[in-house]
Design a protein that fits this description.
Blueprint (H helix, E strand, L loop, with lengths): L3 H41 E4 L9 E4 L3 E3 L6 E4 L6 E5 L7 E9 L6 E5 L8 E8 L7 E8 L14 E8 L7 E8 L3 E6 L2 E9 L9 E5 L5 E11 L2
Antiparallel strand pairs: 1-15, 2-5, 3-4, 4-15, 5-14, 6-11, 6-15, 7-8, 7-14, 8-9, 9-10, 11-12, 12-13
Length: 235
């Protein structure tokens, strides 16, 4: 004879078991989704963190290189009358995100990053120059420069093209600032990394034809670059 209580308990146990099993299904699905997303991100991006600098992989263009033996992740440029670049020959980059710390040696010095370097005189760059104001809050003028040589529509060959804006950063004029640049075929987007809501969007005259980048210094300027990070994004 079948015990009704046993039958009921069995059904209840089975029902609870089914509920317990179904409760685990979303977690398994989430794990699978996380795995697929992680693989996609890994395939679409390649990150190079804290790039070291070696003298034999650096090219001086109208500037003398400054190396810090105590810090292999830091380089500098000496002061000269005209613009200059230290090209990083061991690094290939056309589109993606560059993160870096920059330091102007003096309140009047412009320092920045050059990219799409075709040769010693044709390249793009974003330079930063500290500016004082009455409240002693330092503002950094960010200037985008496309050096002579562009042949794209709307831009006359042989003329430098500048786009300027300002970041309001509370910092020592001779202190470090942390900058993030996103470079796409049509734009350069500039962030103060400590304030992700503050940015400039600058139009480019043409897409990249070179994968070379470097430390840039303006006329009569000296400064330093350290902690360079590269996030390569496939476009």
């Amino acid at each position: 004879m079948i015990d009704p209580g046993r039958f009921t308990n069995h059904r209840t146990f089975s029902s609870d078991g089914e509920k317990l099993q179904s409760a685990h299904i979303p977690s398994i699905r989430n794990l699978k989704l996380l795995l697929v997303t992680s693989i996609w991100v890994w395939l679409s991006c390649a990150s190079t963190r804290n790039i070291p600098f070696h003298a034999n992989a650096l090219k001086e263009v109208n500037r003398n290189l400054i190396l810090d033996k105590a810090d292999p992740y830091k380089i500098g440029v000496e002061r000269r009358a005209s613009c200059g670049v230290i090209i990083l020959n061991n690094l290939d980059f056309n589109y993606g995100v560059l993160e870096m710390d920059l330091q102007s040696e003096d309140i009047s010095d412009a320092i920045g990053i050059a990219f799409n370097i075709e040769n010693d005189s044709i390249y793009e760059c974003v330079g930063f120059q500290p500016l004082s104001n009455p409240e002693n809050q330092v503002q950094y003028a960010a200037t985008y420069i496309a050096k002579p040589g562009w042949q794209s529509s709307g831009y006359e060959s042989g003329i430098s093209h500048n786009r300027a804006g300002e970041f309001s950063i509370k910092a020592d004029p001779a202190g470090w600032i942390t900058i993030r640049l996103k470079i796409t075929p049509h734009q350069v987007i500039v962030w103060d990394k400590k304030n992700i809501n503050q940015r400039l969007e600058l139009e480019r005259p043409a897409s990249s034809v070179s994968k070379k980048v470097g430390l840039w210094a303006g006329p009569n300027s000296s400064g330093y670059l350290k902690n360079l990070n590269l996030i390569k994004v496939n476009n």
